[in-house]
Amino acid sequence: MSEHHEIVFRSDVTVELVRHQASDADVIFAARVSTQGEQTLEGAAAGEQATERDRGLINYLMRDRHGSPFEHNSLTFYVQAPIFVFREFMRHRIASYNEESGRYRELRPVFYVPGPERKLVQVGKPGAYEFEDGTSEQHQMAVDEIKAACTAGYEAYTRMLDAGIAREVARVSLPVSLYSSMYVTMNARSLMNFLSLRTTREGTHFPSFPQREIEMVAEKMEAFWEPLMPMTAETFNANGRVAP
Predict the structure, then answer these.
(1) Which residues of the sequence carry a binding annotation for FAD (predicted)?
(2) Does residue 2 lie within any of the structural domains?
(3) Which of 3, 6, 69, 243 could in theory staple to 30 by disulfide, Cβ–Cβ 3.0 to 4.6 A?
(4) Bridge partners for 97 per DSSP
């Protein structure tokens, strides 16, 4: 007999920075080996910060897209989001992922529904469309229909578990609005590539129009990264948010 849980509906995402070794000094350390030969890791490992004198070098590397010095750092995030967000996230083959498994544990019934601020109506054709708010009736319909589908899917899931059907089979009835969790580890160069594609900003060289739910994750990741590597983040923005 499976343990039944109360169904929970959420409209947010969770992002935590659980581990990091990332600073502007890491970029300077990596870049200077090309002109000065063997370097010492002591400064970067001790948490030294880049100085104003280093800002020009970081800007040069970003502007001229000398990207490899931005790879010598690491950030590990813990993310909770609906499965459809993770499917988009993992299209970026620039990180290491470990996600919770529906084969080895019973999945909790936590599902995503769009919040009142979520734009619902697509106007225009693919490649040239915008989203509009929609009416209050449309929003209520979306919430009601999603909740009904999620409830039916979870009830089918628990019925199959109660009947002795394996978790890996029973989970097939669950929708992609189900929340999952994962650790994702990447370096700053990979993160900037992700941010350039999954956030909308004015003045970018290559405008992006991500689905709002993955943008919510990207915004939280950027908020953790920016104070760790402020010069890198500043030059990333100043150069049109193009990943080096």
Answers:
(1) 68, 91-93, 99, 187-189, 193
(2) no
(3) 69
(4) 184
- Residues making up the binding site for dUMP: 88-91, 99-103, 171, 198
| DSSP tag of 146 | H
Q: Is the pLDDT of residue 36 over 70?
A: no
Tokens 């800002």 label which residue?
Answer: 55
Q: Is 198 a catalytic residue?
A: yes
Residue span of the structural domain in which 155 resides: 8-238
CB atoms closer than 10 angstroms to residue 202:
5
User: Could you tell me the pTM of the whole model?
Assistant: 0.91
Domain count, the chain: 1
Which is catalytic among the residues 198, 201, 212, 241?
A: 198
CATH number, domain containing residue 86: 3.30.1360.170
Q: Which tokens go with 97?
A: 């992922």
> Could you tell me if residue 84 is inside a domain?
yes
pLDDT band at 37; cut points 50, 70, 90: low
